[in-house]
Amino acid sequence: MSMDLNNQRIVLTGITGGIAGVTAQFLLSRGAEIVVSARSREKLDRALSGLEGAISGHVMDVTDAESVADFFARVGGFDHLITPAASSMFAPIREMDFQAAENIMRTKQWGQMLCVHHALPYIGRQGSITLFSGTVTQKPLPGATMFAAVGGATEAAARIWAYELAPIRVNTVVPGVIATPVWEALTGSEQAAQAQLDTIAAALPVGRVGTAEDIAKAVAFLIDNDFVNGISLVVDGGHRLI
What we know:
Layout: E1 9-12, H1 18-29, E2 33-38, H2 41-49, E3 55-59, H3 65-75, E4 78-82, H4 98-119, E5 123-132, H5 145-164, E6 169-175, H6 182-187, H7 190-203, H8 212-224, E7 232-235
């Protein structure tokens, strides 16, 4: 992929996730200027130290409206918004931890909406917004109620915003199983995570799980192609087919 993103200023909220960092570096390598956020100065500085290029950042809590509004006021004008909110929770409805469920809604759904709302005074009219969902909206997975709920809400909202905000384009990336550190947190160990990923890879039509760079390329495509609007771009190696 040889796209030229020179003179494009891109805001990427939530830089601490595995996909976000790789996406930021991928876009930087194409010439973009990147502005990122994290919830604490420590996390922000750690993330920035691992990235090379025209990148800067500010502390922001995506669940706090005042913090989000202040972030975008400090950023000023820009061209594209990416909202890779990262949070994890698996639980069947019989065992639902409703506090954890509410936290996911606040981070992944409410947080994306707050970012879009407060970004609008600053985003260019020929710009774009890229939201994040997940393939549990396409393929049911026991225990993934909250991921499916917030992902489905995000995809539906994006289609409405594609109308409301035109000519700004609004799309959603729908990642499948991606090898990131979240799997270790979910399974309890690096070994258990790798075993789970290997099992999934063997079942996928493409014979492997996804990488963060697979998602970064999808994000870059949605930014670069100005004839793509209002879609949910599934990047799952064919997982929804099996």
